[in-house]
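thought: fold this chain, then report.
action: predict
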Amino acid sequence: MPVTRYYADHAWLGGGRTVAGVIIEVTGDRISALHPTTPPPHPAPDLTPRPASQPASHPTPQPAPDLSGLPAARRGTTGPPPGTVHLRGVTLPGLANAHSHAFHRALRGRTQRERGTFWTWREQMYGVAARLTPDGYHALARAVYAEMALAGVTCVGEFHYVHHDTGGRPYASPNAMGEALVAAAADAGLRITLLDTCYLRGGIGAALEGPQLRFGDRDAEAWAERAAGLRGGGHARIGAAVHSVRAVPADQLATVAGWARERGAPLHFHLSEQVAENEACLAEYGRTPAALLAEHGALGPLSSAVHATHLTSRDIALLGGSRTTVCLCPTTERDLADGIGPARSLADAGALLSLGSDSNAIVDLLEEARGVELDERLATRHRGHWLAADLLRAATSDGHASLGWPETGRLEVGAPADFVTVGLDSVRMAGAPVDALLESVVFGATAADVREVVVAGRPIVSAGHHLLIENVPAALSAAITSLTTSGPPASGAGRSGGTASIPTEDAHE
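observation:
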């Protein structure tokens, strides 16, 4: 089995600070050894936020350690040892993008040309969904996932609901669209959790119509039968999703939740993204969306509530008490004018946090991470709600766990060899202090600072260039142009094994 030794200038091993000079030994697809080449620093002061009545401790200064008895390699090195691959910058576990709709990437910029609401944005999204084919979706997702890899994402949770052909007709291969996404992730070098989504109606009391017909199965049992045909693999796992309580009637929720529970699979759902969703749910069921999902067994440690923006205090207690993860998508929530959710209150109640790029208006998990803190500052007019390490855990280990990859997302022996290096040589990171590298990465770096990406021991990005897809911008441009130009794209036999026609009617809610 091949062994590769990497030398990281600085690595985050899960604590409050980075460690300088770490050798990461990779055997096959796993981390087989970690060797810091410098002694550990003095203990850092306890910086955990606490009430003013409970002051932080101030450790007694200790003398510098005597390194004279240590081997030279343990006293610190001036550079990478011979035979190692040099990771220049700060090396982190791979980032988990816990909520993506890959085809929304085609909307970037186009939806900013006019005023409107979430609902008017949704009409434009339906227009793109109407034109997708299995081959076209594969081409677009392949390029989008490559863009994610360039941003340091090593695992994506794809919330997938465009299942069928025009008018809701099944493809010859019923999961042609989902299979196209799984293949696209493999082509781009990413892990994927395909969150196959149950979507049965156009809203509370409304039937599916227009492009929405492509999303729907007959009922939850039909959804479960189709979803059971999906197969994962080395890079892919299968999960379930309830699109929302708008899209899945109450009497169908338990079927989806049970399907996921029986398989030990993650279950995700959009939750209270819009006030109108809450109002409609209260009118129909006399309870909030969170309470309705709890009543039907959809909350729990393997579940993720996406957005969770407009919650009552009881909703917060339900999510936190059940250890449901809350997936925050700050860039999309800003873009769609959703509002700022009660993230700190949810975390205090016991909910774990993950992060997602959602509509892919921006693909930058570092921006999503700092957005959690910065949005909370806007909402409360106070600073310092999370430490940088807390936000990185949401982007790494907690995000991976929410996607059904609990073994991934940390730099430790035995873990999958998924890691990312953020460079320190850009104008954004120039002058970053060694004792505040985590803070500099979270609050200063962007996706453009990602230099190296390794997934399952395989280099995917090197020196900022994707190694599997030669020209990612060109691939994105070609796929998006094909999907958005006037006139229907060519149809014919493709991944579906059948003919895919493209509707021209306007989208309706």
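thought: worth noting. Residues 453 and 461 are 5 Å apart (CA to CA).
final: tokens above.
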